[in-house]
């Protein structure tokens, strides 16, 4: 990240924090992160290094939220980011995944873009399944918090919006 980008991000965080504490939220970027991965066949699992990047990005997102005064959203966002990035890594076959977290009005917006068409749809799993519950979990979590989620750009982007709570933001 360049000095100019860091300064712009700090200004956006200060605007987001000021809005979270003093009244209406202001628009601003909290995080823009790219993950470059090796081209692979969809059936092949990602490398351990690529999979570990998701945890790193999740921790960066949590730190940025705290820095921007949005501490109350950290736990939910960490789960959402982890699930959406994992889905993009496992199912898209892309070489670049982007994560954008922004404040838009009274909402925190999260978007994961993998550039590959195909809509994210929650699976119906049985009790013994070891995976496949991520989107179900996200769906419930987001709806319980007054948000929404979906896909756009032909499925190339999976996004969600969470209401920024008035209390506990700092």
What is this structure, in a nutshell?
By secondary structure, the protein is an alpha+beta fold. It has helices at residues 3-22, 48-67, 74-91, 134-144; strands at residues 28-36, 96-104, 107-113, 148-152, 157-163.
Structure description:
A 5-stranded antiparallel sheet has the order 1-2-3-5-4. The chain has one domain (3-163): Histidine kinase-like ATPase, C-terminal domain (Heat Shock Protein 90), CATH 3.30.565.10. The two termini are 25 Å apart. By secondary structure, the protein is an alpha+beta fold. β4 and β5 form a beta hairpin. α2 (48-67) packs antiparallel against α3 (74-91) and α3 (74-91) runs antiparallel to α4 (134-144). It has helices at 3-22, 48-67, 74-91, 134-144, and strands spanning 28-36, 96-104, 107-113, 148-152, 157-163. The protein is 41% helix and 22% strand. GO terms for molecular function: ATP binding. This is ATP-binding protein. Residues 52-143 form the Histidine kinase/HSP90-like ATPase domain.
Gyration radius (Cα, Å) is: 16 Å
In round numbers, the mean pLDDT is 78
| Helix and strand element order | HEHHEEHEE
Write the CATH fold name.
Heat Shock Protein 90
Number of domains: 1
Number of DSSP strand runs: 5
Tell me the CATH superfamily: Histidine kinase-like ATPase, C-terminal domain
**Strand order in space, largest sheet:** 1-2-3-5-4
Largest sheet: 5 strands, antiparallel
Q: Separation of termini?
A: 25 Å
| Helicity range | 40-55%
What would you call the structural class? Answer: alpha+beta
């Amino acid at each position: 990240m360049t000095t100019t980008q860091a300064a712009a991000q700090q200004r956006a965080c200060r605007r987001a924090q000021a809005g979270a504490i003093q009244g209406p939220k202001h628009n601003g970027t909290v995080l823009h992160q790219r993950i470059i991965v090796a081209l692979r066949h969809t059936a092949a699992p990602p490398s351990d290094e690529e999979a570990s990047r998701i945890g790193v990005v999740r921790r960066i997102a949590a730190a940025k939220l705290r820095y921007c005064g949005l501490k109350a959203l950290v736990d939910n966002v960490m789960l959402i980011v982890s699930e959406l990035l994992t889905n993009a890594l496992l199912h898209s076959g892309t070489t670049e995944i982007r994560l954008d977290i922004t404040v838009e009005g009274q909402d925190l917006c999260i978007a994961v873009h993998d550039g590959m068409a195909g809509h994210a749809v929650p699976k119906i799993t049985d009790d013994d399944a070891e995976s496949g519950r991520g989107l179900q979990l996200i769906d419930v979590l987001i709806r319980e918090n007054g948000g929404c989620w979906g896909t756009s750009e032909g499925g190339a982007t999976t996004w969600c919006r969470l209401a920024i709570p008035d209390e506990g933001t700092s």
